[in-house]
Amino acid sequence: MKHLLDDSRRRYLFEYRHEGAEWALEIRARNLDDARGRLKAMAWAQYRGEIEHSGTIPGGGFLLRITRLLQHFTGNKKESSRKI
User: Fold this and answer.
1) What pTM did the predictor assign?
2) Alpha helix positions (H), the chain
């Protein structure tokens, strides 16, 4: 999750039909060409298991705001290396 804290990526919506129903897929990418490239790359995806539970992990919050504020004032725009 290299770009976990990078909110510059846009959200693109792709629709498709499967077994008589319409479905949609959201892809976060830098631009439309990047989103289309990511969609094509999914043809090479490998099954890793069934997701039984999901939830939201807060990515913003107080500490992130302070970090960004300090980066703004110090001029340090280095990308975060935080991983989950």
Assistant:
1) 0.55
2) 32-41, 61-74
